[in-house]
Design brief:
Layout: H1 6-38, H2 42-45, H3 47-70, H4 72-91, H5 96-124, H6 128-159, H7 164-167, H8 169-183, H9 198-216, H10 218-221, H11 226-248, H12 262-291, H13 297-326, H14 328-346, H15 355-365, H16 367-381, H17 389-424, H18 429-458
Protein name: MFS transporter
Subcellular location: Cell membrane
Pfam families: MFS_1 (PF07690)
């Protein structure tokens, strides 16, 4: 039997990730059209995003472990099929309820395929330099896909209709399934008896779902409300029960030995602190451009496109070489430092901004994400052996989704509260909005500084670990 093509397999994995990330950002631009067409209430419209986010974040860890048990290729194919079918359902939805249900199914399908993608990648590419390049390609699709999604969403919605942002997934998903069946390596998995902890699965899925639900409703209920605190306490109790269950279960869903690995635990913590402000940066900057500067949907996407381009150029052209030469830690610290500059500059946003002098430098400094994410991904997967690769992938992606949810919910709430206070004090709408965004970016800068400190402290090279290979560029 002919061995699978690794470049083709990487193309399949990256394409599936791109489809998932595009779907997450492409929807935001089309939401006003969905509201007008389907009759969403303002509160109900937020569930077009929330339903996807809750399902995606809640099922990642479970899907990653099931991928280890039943086979990562099977889980990837099943997840892509569910996502594609749900996209068709969303495209033909004629009511808010059907669209929200379809978005939940999309999130579940995305979790199934995304949870095992990194696990497949690290087992395919075992040589350090090749793995660094593969992770750089994979990371680029996630980092740049969101910005590209905003452009594509605006174009499709303006030229055709919002339905086409979902219809476009049908040919992409079908092609991904066909190519994945041929290109991805076959694996039988460990078998369900090797780790089918049903109670642990119930506890962690319910805990994550409850916690993410509480986070995405912070803007509506407030961080100190009984609703938020009550659900947060319930989520914490469920997740604590899950950890106790994992200590005693004969076949744990998530062996706690993974969290004792400094690289794995540190990388996941750094990702949480890094992704939270950076995903909020994307959302808040888009709102600033539209609500303060008066940009349209397509213009907003184009304004943020330079960030995607520089992230792509760095992650695909330089990140792998730099990681090979200097090591993941050094590249990660450099990338986070540049990202601190991104949010630091945004704390000085004026009401009347010039794109060239006030925003373009920010977009160019986003190149730091093209350095930080590949290095962090490599560190996050470094402590897992082949049997736990799917679980490590699911854990890393779960941390990413929780960070995204927390970042958007908390920082947009801070911005909104500041805006309301200034609005009540008689400031103009543009001044109040800008001040709110500056506050959020300031808090985000603090989170990135904390991420830098954690990375420098916890992700130190282990004694006796091999030094990075020094490569002299031609």
């Amino acid at each position: 039997m002919r061995a699978p093509s690794r470049p083709l397999a990487l193309t399949v994995l990256a394409s599936a990730m791109l489809m998932t990330v595009l779907d997450g950002s492409i929807v935001t631009v089309a939401m006003p059209a969905m509201q007008a067409d389907l009759g969403f209430t303002p509160a109900g419209l937020s569930w077009v995003v929330n339903a996807y986010l809750i399902a995606f974040g809640s099922f990642l860890l479970l899907a990653g472990r099931l991928g280890d048990l039943v086979g990562r290729k099977r889980m990837f194919l099943a997840g892509t099929a569910v996502f594609t079918a749900a996209s068709v359902l969303a495209a033909v939805a004629a009511s808010p309820g059907v669209l929200i249900a379809a978005r939940f199914l999309q999130g579940a399908g995305s979790a199934m395929s995304s949870a095992v993608s990194l696990g497949i990648l690290v087992t395919l590419f075992t040589e350090p330099r090749e793995r660094a390049r593969a992770i750089a390609v994979f990371s680029f699709t996630g980092a740049a896909g969101a910005s590209l999604g905003q452009v594509l969403g605006g174009l499709l919605t303006d030229a055709l209709s919002w339905n086409w942002i979902f219809f476009i997934n049908l040919p992409i998903g079908a092609a991904a399934i066909a190519l994945a069946a041929r290109a991805l390596p076959a694996d039988r998995g460990l078998g369900l008896r090797a780790g089918a902890d049903a109670l642990g699965a119930l506890l962690v899925t319910a805990g994550l779902m409850t916690g993410i639900y509480a986070v995405v409703r912070i803007e509506e209920y407030g961080a100190g409300s009984a609703h938020t605190l009550g659900l947060g306490a319930l989520a914490l109790a469920l997740l604590t029960g899950f950890l106790f269950r994992q200590r005693r279960a004969a076949t744990p869903l998530m062996p706690l030995r993974m969290l004792r690995n400094r690289s794995v635990a540190g990388a996941n913590l750094v990702q949480l602190l890094m992704v939270a402000p950076l995903f909020a940066f994307q959302v808040l900057t888009a709102l600033y451009l539209q609500q303060v500067q008066g940009y349209g949907a397509t213009a907003t996407g184009l304004a943020m496109l330079p960030a995607a381009l520089v992230i792509g150029a760095v992650s695909l052209g330089a990140a792998a070489r730099l990681i090979t030469r200097f090591g993941e830690r050094a590249v990660l610290l450099t990338g986070i430092t540049l990202l601190i500059g991104v949010l630091g500059l945004l704390t000085r946003l004026p009401v009347h901004a010039s794109y060239v002098t006030d925003l373009l430098p920010v977009m160019l400094l986003a190149a730091g994400f093209g350095l930080a994410l590949p290095a962090l991904t490599a560190l996050g997967m470094s402590g897992a052996d082949e049997a736990d690769a799917g679980l490590a992938s699911g854990l890393f992606n779960t941390t990413q989704q929780i960070g995204m949810a927390l970042g958007v919910a908390v920082l947009t709430t801070l911005a909104a509260a500041r805006t309301e206070t200034l609005d009540a004090a008689g400031r103009t709408a543009a001044e109040a909005l800008t001040s709110g965004y500056r506050l959020a970016f300031g808090v985000g800068t603090g989170l990135l500084i904390t991420a830098l400190a954690v990375a420098a402290t916890l992700l130190r090279p282990r004694a006796g670990a091999p030094k990075p290979e020094v490569v002299i560029a031609a």
